[in-house]
Amino acid sequence: MGRKHTASEVSRRGNDLDKINFTVRLAEVPISISAIYHSTKDFCRDYLTGEEPVFSLEVTPGDIAYEREKSAREDDYEGIPIRHFSDSYLETLAVYRKIAEQMLDYGVLLFHGSVVAVDHKAYIFTAKSGTGKSTHTRLWRELLGERAVMVNDDKPLLRVGEGSVTAFGTPWDGKHHLSSNIAVPVQAICIMERGKENQIKEISARDAWPMLMQQSYRSGDPGKLAKTMDLLDQLAAKARLYRMACNMELSAAEMSYHKMR
User: Fold this and answer.
1) 18, 194, 207, 237: least buried by Cβ within 10 Å?
2) What Å distances lie between residue 66 and 45, 98, 102, 217, CA to CA?
3) pTM for the whole thing?
4) φ, ψ for residue 117, nearest 5 deg
């Protein structure tokens, strides 16, 4: 992931060198970004636009330090060795956190899940890390071939409109970098868990809500958090919701596809 830069090096870059300025278009919203590292612009290359931005954000050395401290706290909580990420990688996390904060004002949520589109309908699989979301959407692609297109394999944006929910690809697309710069209406959201036998059932918004909340970006600002909760209420009312226990075999994909389509 590259050499870890010292705090003084990051400070010099942030204060003494020109920032890297560019505009991206995410979930139909043009956003101006002022970054420290050229690699951040390259990371967003498939989403660059020349449109006039609706809002802007700037990354500071303090933002990068916050992401490093947060990652270390999470590793400690999980009981795993603390991982050491490069500052350029941590900048991409800081950028997405700032985007997620402001996107709430435009009816857009950052959601943790793997999204596959079939016949121009999006299916979102969400679960705790390590459950097998990416494996399951890979099985969908094996089952359905070219009909199945990955929208985003990790952190899509969801726009909650008056009559529907739309899933959007983003550069933050997981370790396998599976995404497309497309917008697809959401057909269903499925909460996954591992199971020896494959079974799936439709559930109520009340049953799904705790996991939907857990898998959404949650701001520390009370006003922003209230917007998140309101958008989740609308999301749960507009998308079909399922809970599935499954193994990692092709039969699981056959079951979930035929049930949710």
Assistant:
1) 18
2) 25, 12, 18, 16
3) 0.90
4) -110, 135
